[in-house]
Write a structure and sequence with these properties.
Elements lengths: L2 H6 L1 H7 L10 H9 L2 H23 L15 H13 L2 H33 L1 H14 L8 H7 L3 H26 L3 H9 L4 H30 L1 H5 L7 H10 L3 H29 L1 H8 L2
Helix pairs in contact: 5-14, 6-7, 6-9, 6-11, 6-13, 8-9, 9-11, 10-11, 11-14, 13-14
Main location: membrane
Family: Belongs to the binding-protein-dependent transport system permease family.
Membrane topology: Multi-pass membrane protein
C-alpha cells in the first residue's frame, strides 16, 4: 500500500489521531455522581459526625480552653430541640420565604450588573481607569456600614435590605469576571481576528467562554456573601426572615435558637452556591472534559 493511501485510510487515521475526550454515558449527572466516590462521601459524613460529637462533648462538660469556652454554648441536642420547635412554628414559612426573596433579589441584580461591568472593564483600559477606582474604594466597606445610607437612600426598609445583600454579592462577581477576561490568552483573540472574526464574534466565541469559569466562581462566592450579609440586612427592620430570627434570638438570649438560625443560613448558603456551581458545569461541558483529563 502506498504512503498516500495509508495516510488516507481510516485505520491509519484512527491509529495516529489523538483520542477524543471520553464523555461518560448517562449525561452530566451520571458523570458527576461517578466522580463522588463512596469513600469520599463516607469521609465527609464521618467528618461531620466527629465535629458534632466534639461539640456535644464540649458543651455538656463546659469545656474551657482559656481563650475559648463552651460554658454557655448550647449542645447539639438543645439545638435540635429548638430546630424542631421552629419547624412546627407557622412562622417558619414566612422567615424562609422573606429571606429567599431578599437574597435572590439582591444577588440577581448584583449578578447582572457585576458580569456586565466586569466584561466591559476587562476589555477596556479606559473603562478600567474610570470605573474601577471608585468601585475599589467601596469594596472594603462592610455591609453593616451601609445601613444608615441605605435607610436614607431607599423609601422602604425592604429595598434597604435588598440593597445590603446586593452590595455583598456585587464585588465577588465583578472582580472574578474582570480576572476571567484579563486571563484569556491574547493569542486566541489575535488568532480569531486574523481568521476574520469580528468584534462581536470574538466576544461571543472567545472572551465569554474563556471568562465563564471565573464568572461562575464569582457567582458562587457572591451568593455566599449575600447570605453572609443577610443578618446585617435584616437588622434594619422587618418582622420575618432567617437573619431577623437569629438577631431576635440574640436579643432574647435564646442561645439554641441563635445556632438554629446560623445553621439555616449556612445550609441555604451552601445549597444555593452548590446550585450555581452545578448550573455552571452544565453550561461549560468543555471545561468539565478538560478537568477530567487534566
Amino acid at each position: 500500500m502506498s504512503a498516500s493511501a495509508l495516510a488516507l485510510s481510516p485505520a491509519a487515521a484512527s491509529a495516529t489521531a489523538p483520542a477524543a475526550p471520553e464523555i461518560p454515558r448517562g449525561g452530566f449527572l451520571a458523570g458527576w455522581w461517578a466522580g463522588l466516590r463512596l469513600d469520599r462521601i463516607a469521609l465527609r459524613v464521618l467528618a461531620l459526625i466527629l465535629c458534632v460529637a466534639f461539640w456535644q462533648a464540649a458543651a455538656v462538660h463546659h469545656l474551657d480552653l482559656g481563650i475559648v469556652t463552651f460554658r454557655f454554648v448550647p449542645a447539639p441536642t438543645e439545638v435540635a430541640a429548638a430546630a424542631w420547635g421552629l419547624f412546627q412554628s407557622p412562622k417558619l414559612f414566612a422567615h424562609v420565604t422573606n429571606s429567599l426573596i431578599r437574597v435572590f433579589a439582591g444577588f440577581g441584580v448584583a449578578a447582572l450588573l457585576g458580569i456586565a461591568l466586569g466584561l466591559v472593564i476587562g476589555r477596556s483600559r479606559w473603562l478600567e481607569d474610570t470605573l474601577l477606582p471608585p468601585l475599589e474604594v467601596m469594596r472594603p466597606i462592610p455591609g453593616v456600614a451601609w445601613i444608615p445610607l441605605a435607610i436614607l437612600m431607599f423609601p422602604s426598609s425592604e429595598l434597604s435590605m435588598i440593597f445590603i445583600t446586593f452590595m455583598g454579592a456585587l464585588f465577588p462577581v465583578l472582580l472574578n469576571t474582570i480576572h476571567g477576561v484579563e486571563a484569556i490568552d491574547r493569542r486566541l483573540i489575535a488568532s480569531s481576528r486574523s481568521l476574520g472574526a469580528g468584534r462581536w464574534s470574538v466576544f461571543a466565541e472567545v472572551v465569554l467562554p474563556g471568562a465563564l469559569p471565573s464568572v461562575v466562581t464569582g457567582l458562587a462566592i457572591g451568593m455566599g456573601t449575600s447570605w453572609f450579609c443577610l443578618v446585617t440586612a435584616e437588622m434594619i427592620a422587618g418582622q420575618y426572615g432567617i437573619g431577623y430570627y437569629t438577631w431576635e434570638s440574640y436579643t432574647l438570649q435564646n442561645y439554641a435558637d441563635i445556632v438554629v438560625g446560623m445553621l439555616f443560613i449556612g445550609a441555604f448558603g451552601m445549597a444555593s452556591s452548590g446550585l450555581i456551581k452545578l448550573l455552571g458545569r452544565l453550561l461549560m461541558p468543555w471545561y468539565r472534559i478538560q478537568e477530567r483529563h487534566a
